[in-house]
Specification:
heterotetramer, A alpha+beta (814), B alpha+beta (336), C mainly beta (75), D alpha+beta (214), B: 336 residues, alpha+beta, Enolase-like, domain 1, 4-stranded antiparallel sheet, 14 helices, globular, D: 214 residues, Ubiquitin-like (UB roll), DNA polymerase, domain 1, 5-stranded mixed sheet, 7 helices, 5 strands, 12% strand
Chain lengths: 814, 336, 75, 214
């Protein structure tokens, strides 16, 4: 499904990563793969693939393990409390770390004295961050160093409450906490700015005095553009891998039958990973071992190897279990680097887990947004032009754009966007489950709803007019059926408590991380293991790897030992962008296939049959042509010449190549969600009663886990729509709800009845043809709820979260 | 958490002997680990210590003292319970459910099931406000002996709409809303002996002393909580409104106890929670109900009266219509 | 919006779809609007010279913290 | 990780220090002495249990209570929470600390059979009482029906809230064998799950209740 809007693809990549079409293989074969949706015109697609590729997998219905509801591989360890997370790691002699962080949103350090902390009984290392290349790594020579007074020129300018200044390592968390408080700091406070709107104004306190631009490289981001906006503003970003502006927007607006122009605002959301960011770092002369709560073990290893000048082979990162990341746990992190420095200094392992407050203020967030959306429509419903200007702040960081929904979801020949980043004196943002797209849906899908009403159309049917995505069309159909969709006039319920129905849809680009490898090992005792550094962040990666290997070897999922989350194994992808399933499972299947061929080769030799005549199924190895030749897998492995067969494979390019290059696959992962809400017009209270979520993720490998992820996306969307909000005190710059008490998340009674509709959709892209579901599940929810709220009360809310306060205000009651 | 000494008090008298300050005093005047304070379950105490805003030198545990966890109901005398009775005990008591419906509702909607299993009624009445500035170690507010009220000039969407002059925090106990509506009394035991005071006088607004929320003195412990018996014709209800239905703090809660003679209201007590630094009686609204046959119109009038004198802050004006509607619903539900 | 081909070896980034490699490797500049950057030295969005870490600013060898990309081989 | 650094009797105290830790400690003069005062290398001579009205702490004091059916003896400071005592001293890390303020119930254990927040309970307060953690829920190698149902219904994702969820839901079934969906929601109304496993937690708990009745 190529993007119909695509006029010109500007390749944002260097020449060696140029786009390429179908891959030409030296030794290739033509295969036919399932294509489309079973029951809805499923066909076959012929692809030319490498001869190393395993034979095409039929549709799920014809499989034994893949596509079946399979118990989560590690569930037993989770329900019994035996699963060891980073926060549970205890090593002999382990110390505990604690940061000292800035209490001011903008300040210069006038003096700093760590001597009392260093002398405190039980403290083994103290490290102060300094702002010069290399200085932040190794400057302070160890726990017995004399007290140092730091040259203030070397100390960082503090730009947000929570910015790390220094850290200590001590024998208990109590001692570390106490010692960190003993670090004496004098601050010279400076004026600061926290609000998106104020930071854009002339005369606002400046976050970065002078931005150095790289000459010749001022592209899309990096220049302060609008003339009436000063300081603190970067951008705009006007394009992406999907292209830049297209058509003539002004002309199209002039030609439109009607134009809608609205402003939308979304809040800052924090990730609230239940396990906070953190590591246990163990610096040894021969190996740095780091237990990390991360979404990317290989990335943490690479960061640490680069920073500490170590070969990658001497850095080992382990993530056996991790308690949630949602996009925020990439890279070694300031805590990871600090723990490593402290471990090196102290000569002992150091555990450094952020406190709940630190998690909120320093570990990332979803930036807020102020979106000015203008869309032109024809009376037949066609969208003539889309113009989206947005501002957002990721605090002292960048990346506050609102995604590609406006650009890419609906057919529209004229499009333009300007997305600005605004610097403020607040903690940096981080990728958060479908960065930008969640914000983008909130505005675009409300406007589509409004246009439908203007056109006198059922908003569901209206989308059939403007949306060319075939699978999404099917989602609307099946979702509406499950939901019992019937369009109701907005605000038509009598009585104070009003019911509303709404829907919204989303889009996510299929993306593959090619740096995805795995090893499959068959042992002579009949045990089978699959290994990769890829981590299971709760999505169920362990289970789907076991399923894929089991399917290939004719075994059961529980026969497969999955060893992942360790960089001693082949590199797996980072788990972000919904890339994991689509990236690693083909590598795993191909490795399993290779190992299987090796094993079958040895069996074929013993039986004197052709290897192609052998089949592995239901725990047996047998000859298709000679039914007398059959033995169990356990017997077959005894024919092995060596004790082990091992095979490693990496993710090949998509069958049929990539749309743009760099792993950007053809096709978009669509999603459609329907919401039913109750709005109490007297108290402003909104309750989401029911959500139907229709999704596709290519071949669903384990429908039970797919359901779980969709549930999770919907629930996170409910939180975003109604409750979550990082609240900063504007006088002190502190987040005053940096806890789980006042930062409000959905709990049991806020959970709607959720029904999932999973469309099995084959694209003939790889040996498993799977895609991810994490992001798509989260994208449309808040938009669907907003449309349902409008449907209930007949008044539209343009700002998140939709609190009782905002509802009452919108209704004019308050 | 700071280091502290710990002792299990064997008796009330000894506990009184051992203690030297209330928690508010320990936070303002006896700082630096010098205070000796009592604790019941400690759910609020530990919270304060973990935030670093309370640093007691010695914690005196009351759990070993026999007899403080008794609950009794008598048709003539009413309900009485000791300070160590947990919120779950109240929630699960058949007598409370049958005779004190508003109290049961308040107990059933407080905190989380886990906290209800732990937290005691003594501790619940003595707990400190949840104002986010008060709870933050980074804000030395008036309640902690400072000079600034950060809520008045800052984020105040969950704060008071009444008595907002000195400190607009709201009283944290939603159970107190119901207890005051039932005209509950509290028995305090100190070095001089016992004294019994109505809960409506036990809680004090910020104007009296911004650093504390009640009249308990340095060496006083709540030893009993008593509610008068309910007569036939008593109708009561309690409604709590949070942003969430699950675990959440109140944005507004209302308790109503009415003495009905058929459709006619003889007497009424209306109390607002999360509206002021104390559980707030709304006498003017009560007067609107008294002696009247309850109708929608009467209720609406009472609701208007109940919000007279409200002085909402910059961000909590929504609480005015919210309380009006909550009051209407609570009265309607009470007379059912 | 071509990507720079050279920028500091200590620059890292993450876009919506995953991490971006630093050093000599070209940045995969998929969607600048939603990409976050950090400097390995500070592990924050600000370089050691107190300026923002970003694709367009970290290729500048006038920045005193700039480090020439180096082939990072698996040893 | 069986070396209970804090749980020790005089005769087994030396075994409490691993060889590796000992070597590291020995190599660091200042650190070594400091460690003796407060850290993992500290031993305390056997003392008789103090009388109950004695002032305990602020240093380490002896606390005894039952954990999962076994009598355990700990030397801990009075400020130590039950959650920290379980995790750091008894290595029962199934109990998770997430909010550390009683707002998420990840740290739920049963105290004398009732679900409570171990992060808001002092370990000294449970002297003589009975604590059940998620590790102690399975009996004689048999999973609790709630644990089985959690596996069957995919009621865990990242798994970090799971121990608390399991303890809340199993706690519910212990006192109410016939719960409605609303009862399950009420029992978990203090349990935070960021992955969004709630729908399956509800399904699993209701299924476990059915199974237990059979």
């Amino acid at each position: 499904m190529a993007n119909p809007n695509k006029k010109k693809i500007v390749l944002p990549v260097a020449p060696d990563n140029q786009a390429h079409g179908p891959v030409k293989h030296l030794h290739s074969k033509k295969v036919k793969l399932p294509y489309g949706v079973p029951g809805h015109g499923l066909t076959e697609m012929e692809r030319e693939v490498s001869i190393d590729e395993p034979p095409p997998l039929p549709i799920n219905e014809k499989l034994n393990v893949v596509g079946k509801r399979t118990k989560r591989a590690d569930a037993i360890y989770k329900v019994t409390g035996t699963a060891k997370y980073t926060s549970d790691i205890q090593l002999p002699g382990m110390l505990y770390g604690k940061f000292l962080r800035s209490p001011h949103p903008h300040a210069r350090i006038k003096s700093l004295d760590v001597s009392a902390a260093r002398r405190y009984p039980g403290v083994h290392a103290v490290h102060v961050l300094k702002m010069e290349p290399g200085g932040s790594v190794e400057r302070d020579s160890g726990h017995d160093a004399p007290a140092e007074t730091y040259n203030i020129e070397e100390l960082p300018l503090l730009r947000y409450v929570g910015q790390p200044i220094a850290a200590v390592a001590a024998e208990s968390q109590y001692i570390a906490d106490e010692a960190a408080r003993l670090i004496k700091v004098e601050y010279e406070t400076r004026p600061f700015v926290l609000e998106l709107d104020k930071a854009r104004q002339k005369g606002a306190p400046i976050v970065f005095e002078k931005v150095i631009e790289d000459e010749g490289n001022e592209g899309d981001v990096g220049v302060t553009a609008a003339e009436d906006q000063e300081g603190n503003l970067r951008g705009p970003s006007t394009g992406s891998f999907l292209g830049g502006p297209r058509g003539d927007v002004e002309k199209a607006f002039a030609e439109a039958d009607f134009v809608l122009e609205r402003e939308f605002r979304t809040q800052v959301q924090t990730h609230c990973c239940l396990e906070t960011h953190g590591v246990v770092a163990d610096w040894q002369p021969d190996m740095l071992t780091v237990y990390a709560s991360t979404q990317n073990t290989a990335g943490v290893r690479d960061d640490l190897a680069e920073l500490f000048g170590l070969p990658k082979s001497k850095v080992r990162v382990i993530t056996e279990y991790m308690g949630g990341g949602f996009g925020s746990k990439f890279g070694a992190g300031h805590y990871g680097v600090m723990a490593t420095i402290l471990s090196k200094k102290a000569g002992r392992p150091v555990k450094l887990m952020l406190s709940r407050e630190e998690e909120h203020i320093s570990a990332g967030n979803r930036p807020n947004s102020h979106q000015m959306l203008k869309m032109g429509f024809k009376n037949d419903g066609k969208i003539t032009a889309i113009d989206l200007t947005s501002y957002g702040t990721a605090g002292v960081g960048l990346g506050a754009g609102v995604g590609r929904i406006a650009q890419d979801m609906y057919e529209c020949p004229n499009f333009r966007t300007a997305q600005y980043d605004v610097f403020t004196h607040a903690g940096p943002g981080a990728a958060f489950r479908a960065p930008g797209n969640v914000q983008g849906v909130f505005s675009v899908e409300q406007m589509i709803d409004e246009a439908a009403e203007r056109l006198g159309l059922d908003p569901l049917k209206y989308r059939d007019v403007i949306d060319k995505h075939e699978v999404r069309k099917l989602m609307r159909l099946k979702g509406a059926e499950a939901f019992g969709w019937e369009y109701k006039k907005p605000g038509s319920d009598p009585g104070p408590i009003k019911r509303g129905f709404g829907m919204a849809q989303g889009q996510w680009t299929r993306f593959i991380n090619l740096n995805s490898s795995a090893t499959v090992r068959i042992n002579k005792d009949g045990s089978v293991a699959v290994m990769s550094s890829v981590q299971d962040i709760g999505t169920g990666t362990k289970t789907i790897l076991a399923q894929v290997v089991a399917e290939e070897l004719g075994l059961a999922a529980e026969d497969i030992t999955v060893k992942i989350g360790d960089t001693l194994y082949p590199d797996g992808p980072g788990s972000g962008g919904s890339v994991t399933a689509g990236s690693i499972t083909p590598a795993v299947r191909n490795a399993a296939y290779k190992a299987k061929m090796d094993l079958l080769g040895q069996v074929a030799g013993a039986w004197d049959v052709e290897i192609g005549d052998l089949e592995m199924k239901n725990g047996d190895v047998y000859s298709r042509s000679d039914s007398s030749k059959k033995m169990s897998f356990g017997e077959a492995v005894k024919k092995m010449r060596t004790n082990q067969i091992m095979a490693t494979a990496s993710r090949p390019d998509d069958y049929g190549g990539f749309e743009i290059g760099n792993g950007i696959g053809y096709g978009r992962l669509g999603s459609v969600q329907f919401a039913e809400v109750l709005v109490d017009t007297e108290t402003g209270f909104i309750k989401v009663e029911r959500v139907v979520a229709a999704h596709s993720c290519g071949r669903p490998l384990n429908p039970m886990q797919v359901e779980s992820q969709i549930n999770g996306g919907v629930i996170m969307g409910v939180g975003y729509a109604l409750y979550e909000d990082r609240i900063l005190d504007l006088n002190t710059g502190h987040q005053i709800n940096a806890n789980l008490d006042q930062y409000k998340l959905p709990y049991s009674k806020e959970i709607p009845k959720i029904e999932t509709v999973i469309i099995e959709h084959y694209g003939a892209f790889s040996s498993t043809d799977a895609s991810g579901i994490g992001e798509p599940a989260n994208i449309p929810t808040a938009g669907a709820i907003a449309n349902a709220v409008y449907n209930a009360i007949g008044v539209r809310l343009y700002e998140l979260p939709m609190t009782p306060q905002k509802v009452l205000t919108a209704l004019g009651v308050s | 958490m700071n280091r502290f000494e710990y002792i299990k008090a064997p008796s009330i008298d000894e506990a009184i002997d051992m203690m030297d300050s209330t928690v508010p005093e320990a936070m303002v005047t006896k700082t630096g680990g010098s205070a000796k304070v009592v604790k019941a379950a400690g759910t609020d105490l530990l919270d304060l210590i973990k935030e670093g805003i309370l640093e007691p030198g010695r914690v005196i545990d009351l759990k070993n003292i026999p007899g403080l966890d008794k609950l009794s109901y008598d048709k003539e005398k009413g309900l009485a319970f000791g300070p160590m009775v947990t919120i779950a005990d109240l929630e699960n008591s058949p007598e409370v459910k049958k005779h004190y419906r508003a109290l049961h509702e308040a107990a059933a909607h407080a905190a989380t099931p886990q906290i209800r299993n732990m937290a005691t009624m003594g501790g619940n009445l003595m707990q400190r406000p949840r104002c986010w500035y008060f709870r933050s170690n980074g804000h030395h507010c008036r309640k902690k002996g400072g000079t600034t009220c950060f809520a008045q000039i800052g984020q105040n969407q969950f704060h008071s709409i009444f008595l907002t002059n000195v400190c607009p925090c709201v009283h944290p106990s939603s159970l107190a809303t119901a207890l005051v509506a039932y005209d509950g009394k509290v028995e305090l035991t100190g070095p001089e002996g016992k004294r019994v005071i109505p809960l409506s006088e036990f809680f004090t607004p910020s104007e009296v002393d911004v650093t504390c929320e009640n009249v308990a003195t340095s060496q006083e412990i709540i030893t009993n909580i008593m509610l008068p018996p309910v007569k036939s014709g008593t109708r009561a209800f309690y409604v709590k409104h949070g942003q969430r239905e699950s675990y959440d703090w109140s944005m507004g809660d209302v308790a109503v106890v009415m003495q009905m003679d058929g459709k006619k209201c003889q007497d009424a007590r209306i109390v607002f929670g999360a509206a002021a630094p104390i559980p707030l009686r709304r006498e003017a609204a009560e007067e609107e109900l008294k002696g009247k046959t309850i109708s929608e119109k009467v209720i609406a009038k009472a609701a208007e009266k109940a919000l007279e004198g409200a002085t909402p802050l910059a961000q909590n004006g929504y609480k005015v219509p919210l309380f009006k509607n909550l009051l209407k619903r609570t009265v309607t539900e009470a007379i059912g | 919006m071509d990507s720079p081909t050279r920028y500091c070896r200590y620059l890292r980034g993450k876009n919506a779809y995953g991490t971006l490699e630093g050093g000599d490797k070209p940045f995969l500049n998929f969607d600048p609007a939603t990409t976050t950057y950090w400097c390995l030295h500070t592990m924050g969005p600000v370089g050691p010279d107190s300026q923002p870490a970003h694709l367009t600013t970290c290729g500048n060898d006038k920045r005193k913290c700039f480090a020439v990309p180096k082939e990072r081989e698996e040893l | 990780m069986k070396n209970d650094s804090k749980e020790r009797s005089p005769e087994k105290k030396k075994q409490g220090v691993s060889r590796r830790a000992f070597l590291r400690g020995a190599g660091m003069t200042t650190a070594g002495t400091v460690a003796l005062a407060s850290g993992m290398l500290s031993f305390k001579a056997a003392e008789p249990a103090p009388p109950k009205t004695a002032i305990l702490g602020p240093g380490e004091t002896e606390v005894k209570f039952m954990v999962n059916g076994q009598q355990r003896t700990l030397w801990i400071e009075p400020r130590t929470t039950l959650a920290d005592a379980l995790r750091d001293h008894l290595h029962l890390t199934g109990t998770k600390v997430v909010c550390d303020r009683g707002a998420c119930s990840a740290c739920t254990v049963w105290l004398d059979g009732k679900p409570v927040n171990s992060c808001m309970t002092l370990a000294v307060d449970v002297e003589g009482r009975e604590v059940t953690t998620v590790e102690g829920l399975a009996r004689d190698g048999e999973l609790h029906p709630v644990q089985e149902a959690f596996i069957e219904h995919d009621a865990s994702m990242c798994g970090y809230c799971t121990p608390g969820m399991v303890m809340s839901c199993a706690g519910l079934l212990e006192r109410n064998p016939n719960p409605s969906l609303d009862d399950v929601k009420l029992a978990t109304s203090g349990n935070l799950c960021r992955c969004g496993t709630y729908p399956k937690v509800f399904d699993a708990t209701l299924a476990a209740a059915k199974k237990m009745k059979k």
